[in-house]
């Protein structure tokens, strides 16, 4: 009796549930601390202290019907203005409150902009590997996700592959840098090349093509990597942001969309997106968290913790003979599976109590993802287990 | 360049925006306190003090990565269990955490259950007058909203009208009691009659018909009115609840769905609804508010404030010669327009700085809605203005 469109999800989610249940089963047998779970992007680093202080101060000093009440569906004007000014200071942009729409996390923001832009049959381009939820978000609005295959082994975008796939139905390109699952950051040069391709094709086809920049990992970069702000390189850019990672608030569902003045059909996009926020059932981003993130706009989690994890995990796995892409951002490490079938490799790792996600979940089979937003002990404990897995693989009949 | 499906919304929302801008314009000229705005259901009664204490206590005593982190997409197990036990105590039901799905308010919950159940072309029945957003929620999933016309002047459901409109495409009936916009509460007898009709027709047609009970106003009842708990009367009932009104937290977006064991296709409905919560971009209900409402599960706003407003407004308008339905619940008063065209009446009221919503927004032209979740002074100030409006109407050529 459930909707036909939900049937495949229910089947899929029982596979994921089976994975979680297996994790829970292992934890019960061996103890939680002896299961090395790299499967989830749930930050283990505490939110900045300023966040807690801000929430308490808001509760103590502001009128409660204001703090917990409805506001414009786009969010509190002051909050949006604070964010606009913050972005302007960082990136030399010229945003005002009118360019900011507060959303229920980045996932809410992506659904809002897709509802705003997509007609059934429209195409959304994405570079593999990509966050698997994009498939669902596109399907929610009858849009088709068109995948540019992965560009091995660098995982930088395949520009020729992009150009070949642009049609008159192409309405948007989703860019996710720093990238989940690879940790790759797209360089300014790459962004300029992508913008040139989109401009050329849009002009040829007489269409508008939007870039939707999904940027929850913007602040999580290492070794001085720079993440270009895309609105400066391509006028039809919508940025989706979330405080889930930069402030470790994934459960609170707080983020925003940036809708620059330069967008094609700007006024209608803003009006439609604000309406979409309401009619999709979000109504508005959670009110007290809007006020709180604005009060500590310069605060951030301690990224050194992730960096230490990154260095140790990358070095450790490389030393064991695993082929890894060194992540420049986010908190994911993407690693080549030593077995052609990476689900088999994940199974072997699980038997050593190490939980990985198969690359096929990100349209990139033959690889696995490790989320290193875990305790340092988890990384130290996992490496000897991964050594055993490598030894087992080397002992297999058909392996080197 | 926005989606075709959004174009009519953008047109519609500019009408609403024009209304708000007019309100703001009047406030600027006459002062905010001299504009009597009954247009919005934004509670003016403060949340219970326990809510603030709970949030602060959670921040002071719990691990922040737990408070602000991801949990099961259905919500924290403990929170869901607390709510289940609370419902069981109040209603003699037998729910467990498995029957509760935490949602981003009632609007989020309705979208989740419609995504779960509706295939394009499915029909959803609703009694007019009804909350206009149901139209958008149905359209989000390609479902058709089939309206049972209003049953004047009591606004109790038209049972014959219901029965006549049930077809093999009928997948759900939305019931909203206490009702927005009428304030009417459906009696136990009415609920039993509706259940009997749905059972009979579902059996005849060989289908399952769900009741979706939209209950954000459940606790806001007056004069000892009783709101039957629908899962006890009809097995295929999903309840959507929100703390927006009972705890004055509309901006926080916190509510839940009740999915009873007795539902047709129960296991799949729960699995699909949990998945829908994720893929629609809600992911989960805001985490700290989940924890907070569970900690003060017995707290509620002071309903005496709304009751005083209700009595004064109802008595005052009736004394002036307006024909009102005395509300038994919620914080809305539905009133017959003294002019055949209620938008003309709204315009006259606005010229006296009283803002009303035309009944046509609720599929019930000829009436207007007043949201009395306002200060008592607003009510006292509005009555003399409404007296002037009545005098003007009586002086019109074609009026008594």
UniProtKB/TrEMBL annotation, chains A, B:
Organism superkingdom: Bacteria
Keywords on record: Aminotransferase, Transferase
Domain Aminotransferase class I/classII large, first and last residues per copy: 34-375
Xref: InterPro entries: Aminotransferase_I/II_large, NHTrfase_class1_PyrdxlP-BS, PyrdxlP-dep_Trfase, PyrdxlP-dep_Trfase_major, PyrdxlP-dep_Trfase_small
EC number per UniProt: 2.6.1.-
Cofactors (names): pyridoxal 5'-phosphate
One Pfam family of this chain: Aminotran_1_2
Chain segments annotated as transmembrane: none
Family, similarity comment: Belongs to the class-I pyridoxal-phosphate-dependent aminotransferase family.
Protein name (record): Aminotransferase
Species, as recorded: Aminipila butyrica
